[in-house]
Amino acid sequence: MGKKTNVEKLREIRDQLNAEVEDMTIDECLEFLESKKSDSLHSKKWWAEKEKSQKQQLSKV
After folding, report:
1. Closest CA to 21 of 39, 36, 8
2. Which of 2, 31, 40, 56 has the smallest number of CB atoms closer than 10 Å to its CB?
3. What is the largest CA-CA distance in the chain?
4. Residue 1 falls within a domain, yes or no?
5. At a CB cut-off of 8 Å and minimum separation 6, what does 24 contact?
6. Is 34 within the bounds of a domain?
7. pLDDT over 90 percentage in the chain
8. Taking a C-beta distance cutoff of 8 angstroms, is the pair 21, 29 a contact?
């Protein structure tokens, strides 16, 4: 099969998350979601720093 579309990728992510929380209690789900928010925030900071360094490199060229 060729390259996956964004919709297909999002469906896979949704299915994976559903499988992870399927047997959790409400409190466990809330804790899981909070940890995902933290991971997302860390990822956003990492990408922002990477983008900033790339812009600096381009400005030197």
Report:
1. 36
2. 2
3. 54
4. no
5. 32
6. yes
7. 11
8. yes
